[in-house]
Description:
Structural class: alpha+beta
Number of strands: 8
Strand content: 35-45%
Shape: globular
Distance between the termini: 56 Å
Largest sheet: 8 strands, mixed
Number of helices: 3
Amino acid sequence: MEIRMRASVLCFREGKLLVVCLRDPVTNVTYRFPPGGLIEKGESARDAAIREAAEETGYRVELSEVPPLVVEYPFVWAGKVVACRTHFLQALAQGEARPVSGREKVVEAVEWVDTATLLVEWGSHPELQNALRPVLEKNQKPNRKKP
């Protein structure tokens, strides 16, 4: 099976992760995932992550120097199992979200979602959930202690 090479950004803000809501065209189920997509021929993972974030969310992102987390996992989309290798790059989102380009028809919404909520939601994708757990837990909003 051919492996789909992808890049995604992990943008955190106040314990929340930037995600896009994607509707599977076959099942009509909506999922929330970090913005990302295919690495095009001749493109680096870093360049792909920046491009995909802009295309899907409208945000400009500034990538950190933290090495990417590379994860291989099966992903079910449109009734097919796709083998993915995704480079997850940490970044800061700059500016405000803008309407996404017309070619990103599967993107229904752009949201900032609490990292703990996403860890529960991603239970249907255990490889992804387990791989991203340390990064999401590190970026959770700390619990405030009552005086």
